[in-house]
Design goal:
This protein is of the alpha/beta class. The chain is 29% helix and 35% strand.
Protein backbone atom coordinates (compact mmCIF):
# COMPACT_ATOMS: atom_id res chain seq x y z
CA UNK A 1 0.00 0.00 0.00
CA UNK A 2 1.38 3.40 -0.97
CA UNK A 3 2.03 6.20 1.49
CA UNK A 4 -0.80 8.22 -0.10
CA UNK A 5 -3.21 5.28 0.33
CA UNK A 6 -2.20 4.94 3.96
CA UNK A 7 -2.85 8.66 4.50
CA UNK A 8 -6.25 8.32 2.81
CA UNK A 9 -7.18 5.42 5.10
CA UNK A 10 -6.01 7.27 8.17
CA UNK A 11 -7.53 10.69 7.46
CA UNK A 12 -10.57 10.48 5.17
CA UNK A 13 -14.05 10.37 6.68
CA UNK A 14 -17.04 8.36 5.46
CA UNK A 15 -20.34 10.20 5.88
CA UNK A 16 -23.52 8.17 5.32
CA UNK A 17 -26.64 9.72 3.76
CA UNK A 18 -24.93 12.85 2.46
CA UNK A 19 -25.98 14.84 0.49
CA UNK A 20 -29.12 12.67 0.22
CA UNK A 21 -30.26 9.43 1.85
CA UNK A 22 -28.53 6.38 0.42
CA UNK A 23 -25.40 8.22 -0.72
CA UNK A 24 -22.15 7.40 1.12
CA UNK A 25 -19.96 10.51 0.89
CA UNK A 26 -16.22 10.08 1.15
CA UNK A 27 -14.92 13.28 2.71
CA UNK A 28 -11.32 14.04 1.77
CA UNK A 29 -11.14 17.44 3.47
CA UNK A 30 -9.20 16.02 6.45
CA UNK A 31 -6.60 14.77 3.93
CA UNK A 32 -6.42 18.25 2.36
CA UNK A 33 -5.91 19.78 5.81
CA UNK A 34 -2.80 17.66 6.45
CA UNK A 35 0.14 19.12 4.51
CA UNK A 36 2.16 15.91 4.34
CA UNK A 37 -0.84 13.82 3.25
CA UNK A 38 -1.87 16.38 0.65
CA UNK A 39 1.62 16.35 -0.85
CA UNK A 40 1.64 12.54 -1.01
CA UNK A 41 -1.72 12.54 -2.77
CA UNK A 42 -0.70 15.24 -5.25
CA UNK A 43 2.57 13.52 -6.09
CA UNK A 44 0.74 10.24 -6.79
CA UNK A 45 -2.00 11.94 -8.82
CA UNK A 46 0.40 13.54 -11.29
CA UNK A 47 3.27 11.01 -11.41
CA UNK A 48 1.75 8.78 -14.14
CA UNK A 49 1.31 11.84 -16.38
CA UNK A 50 4.70 13.51 -15.93
CA UNK A 51 5.74 15.32 -19.09
CA UNK A 52 2.40 14.79 -20.85
CA UNK A 53 0.46 17.89 -19.78
CA UNK A 54 0.80 21.68 -20.03
CA UNK A 55 -1.83 22.72 -17.50
CA UNK A 56 -4.00 21.17 -14.80
CA UNK A 57 -7.80 21.52 -14.64
CA UNK A 58 -9.85 21.01 -11.52
CA UNK A 59 -13.57 20.32 -11.28
CA UNK A 60 -15.57 22.36 -8.78
CA UNK A 61 -15.05 22.30 -5.91
CA UNK A 62 -12.68 19.78 -4.36
CA UNK A 63 -10.96 19.38 -7.70
CA UNK A 64 -9.85 23.01 -7.37
CA UNK A 65 -7.80 22.14 -4.29
CA UNK A 66 -6.16 19.21 -6.04
CA UNK A 67 -5.53 21.05 -9.31
CA UNK A 68 -4.04 24.15 -7.69
CA UNK A 69 -1.67 22.07 -5.57
CA UNK A 70 -0.77 19.86 -8.54
CA UNK A 71 -0.08 22.88 -10.74
CA UNK A 72 2.33 24.30 -8.17
CA UNK A 73 4.13 20.95 -7.84
CA UNK A 74 4.25 20.41 -11.63
CA UNK A 75 5.16 24.01 -12.45
CA UNK A 76 2.11 24.56 -14.67
CA UNK A 77 -0.95 26.76 -14.67
CA UNK A 78 -4.40 25.77 -13.47
CA UNK A 79 -7.86 26.22 -14.95
CA UNK A 80 -11.22 25.74 -13.29
CA UNK A 81 -14.23 23.84 -14.50
CA UNK A 82 -17.08 25.53 -12.66
CA UNK A 83 -20.77 25.25 -11.99
CA UNK A 84 -22.99 27.24 -14.36
CA UNK A 85 -23.05 31.00 -13.91
CA UNK A 86 -19.77 31.32 -12.00
CA UNK A 87 -17.43 32.28 -14.86
CA UNK A 88 -17.57 35.90 -16.11
CA UNK A 89 -16.39 35.55 -19.72
CA UNK A 90 -17.43 33.44 -22.72
CA UNK A 91 -17.83 29.77 -21.83
CA UNK A 92 -18.74 26.39 -23.17
CA UNK A 93 -21.18 24.40 -21.04
CA UNK A 94 -22.30 20.81 -20.53
CA UNK A 95 -25.29 19.50 -18.58
CA UNK A 96 -24.87 16.09 -16.96
CA UNK A 97 -26.52 13.68 -14.53
CA UNK A 98 -25.18 13.09 -11.03
CA UNK A 99 -25.96 10.06 -8.91
CA UNK A 100 -28.27 12.39 -6.94
CA UNK A 101 -29.48 15.00 -9.48
CA UNK A 102 -28.33 17.06 -12.47
CA UNK A 103 -25.92 19.95 -12.92
CA UNK A 104 -24.17 22.05 -15.56
CA UNK A 105 -20.45 22.73 -15.82
CA UNK A 106 -18.69 25.52 -17.69
CA UNK A 107 -15.18 26.35 -18.89
CA UNK A 108 -13.84 29.63 -20.23
CA UNK A 109 -13.20 29.47 -23.97
CA UNK A 110 -10.40 32.05 -24.06
CA UNK A 111 -8.07 30.88 -21.31
CA UNK A 112 -5.80 28.51 -23.22
CA UNK A 113 -4.72 28.14 -26.85
CA UNK A 114 -6.21 25.28 -28.85
CA UNK A 115 -4.20 22.09 -28.51
CA UNK A 116 -3.11 22.73 -24.91
CA UNK A 117 -2.67 19.39 -23.12
CA UNK A 118 -4.76 19.29 -19.93
CA UNK A 119 -4.54 16.92 -16.98
CA UNK A 120 -8.00 16.75 -15.39
CA UNK A 121 -8.16 16.19 -11.63
CA UNK A 122 -11.04 15.48 -9.28
CA UNK A 123 -11.52 13.87 -5.92
CA UNK A 124 -13.88 10.97 -6.69
CA UNK A 125 -14.96 9.10 -9.81
CA UNK A 126 -18.45 7.82 -9.07
CA UNK A 127 -20.88 7.39 -11.99
CA UNK A 128 -18.55 9.32 -14.29
CA UNK A 129 -21.00 12.03 -15.32
CA UNK A 130 -18.95 14.93 -13.98
CA UNK A 131 -15.72 13.80 -15.58
CA UNK A 132 -17.43 12.86 -18.85
CA UNK A 133 -18.92 16.38 -19.01
CA UNK A 134 -15.55 17.92 -18.10
CA UNK A 135 -13.78 15.99 -20.85
CA UNK A 136 -16.44 17.17 -23.27
CA UNK A 137 -15.82 20.76 -22.21
CA UNK A 138 -12.10 20.39 -22.87
CA UNK A 139 -12.83 19.12 -26.37
CA UNK A 140 -15.41 21.87 -26.97
CA UNK A 141 -12.77 24.46 -26.05
CA UNK A 142 -10.21 22.91 -28.44
CA UNK A 143 -8.08 21.47 -25.65
CA UNK A 144 -6.55 17.99 -25.48
CA UNK A 145 -7.21 15.71 -22.51
CA UNK A 146 -3.80 14.38 -21.47
CA UNK A 147 -5.40 12.27 -18.77
CA UNK A 148 -7.74 12.04 -15.82
CA UNK A 149 -6.51 11.43 -12.30
CA UNK A 150 -8.70 10.99 -9.22
CA UNK A 151 -8.13 10.19 -5.58
CA UNK A 152 -10.91 7.60 -5.25
CA UNK A 153 -12.72 5.49 -7.81
CA UNK A 154 -16.03 3.96 -6.66
CA UNK A 155 -15.74 0.70 -8.59
CA UNK A 156 -19.33 -0.47 -8.07
CA UNK A 157 -20.66 2.56 -9.99
CA UNK A 158 -18.67 1.76 -13.18
CA UNK A 159 -17.83 5.41 -13.92
CA UNK A 160 -14.59 4.55 -15.67
CA UNK A 161 -16.55 3.35 -18.70
CA UNK A 162 -17.65 6.97 -19.31
CA UNK A 163 -14.06 8.24 -19.47
CA UNK A 164 -13.47 6.51 -22.78
CA UNK A 165 -9.90 5.97 -23.98
CA UNK A 166 -8.41 8.95 -22.11
CA UNK A 167 -5.52 7.78 -19.91
CA UNK A 168 -6.90 7.28 -16.38
CA UNK A 169 -5.40 6.90 -12.92
CA UNK A 170 -7.02 6.45 -9.51
CA UNK A 171 -5.07 6.37 -6.27
CA UNK A 172 -7.60 4.06 -4.63
CA UNK A 173 -10.33 1.77 -5.87
CA UNK A 174 -13.12 1.50 -3.30
Amino acid sequence: MSAASEALDRLSAIVPDFPTPGIVFRDLTPVFADAAALRLVIDELIAPFAGTFDVVAGVEARGFVLAAAAAVVAGTGVVMIRKAGKLPRATVSRKYALEYGTATLELHTDELPAGTRVLLLDDVLATGGTLEASLGLLGDAGLVAAGVSVVLELDALHGRARIGDVPFHALRLV
